[in-house]
Amino acid sequence: MLELRPNCECCDKDLPPEASDALICTFECTFCADCVDTVLGGVCPNCGGNFAPRPIRPAAKLTKYPPSTKRVLKAEGCARRVA
């Protein structure tokens, strides 16, 4: 079951369960599309993997399978990836 983390690890933007701009890597590192495109260059700074759109959990399932409330934020920030 995906955690559905509540924020971008880079800029701390809120990413609620219905966010269409939430992207995840294979380890569920979660970032907003803007940071993935403009800062990270499409590469996860934690594992080096790529990103895919985070699935949107149907609202009817959120009560039984709630999203995570634990915010994850890179304390050192996200370094801009140089191609």
Automatic annotation (TrEMBL):
- Supply the InterPro entries for this chain: DUF1272
Q: One Pfam family, please name it.
A: DUF1272
The name on file for this protein is DUF1272 domain-containing protein
| Taxonomic lineage of the native organism | Bacteria, Pseudomonadati, Pseudomonadota, Alphaproteobacteria, Hyphomicrobiales
